[in-house]
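Quarterly update from the structural biology core.
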Amino acid sequence: MAQTAQNQPMEFMSTHPAHATRIQQLQEHMPKALALFKQAQAAGKIPKCR
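Predicted structure, tokenized:
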């Protein structure tokens, strides 16, 4: 199986995105996630993370 320099399978052959793709997608989704978080806080919802 072909692998990248970081010893990971090619992205199209993997069940998970490449690290760079994952980071890019997280950065793209962050503004919407933060807006939803702020909306929930304004509605008085508090996460119960432990």
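Helices lie at 19-42.
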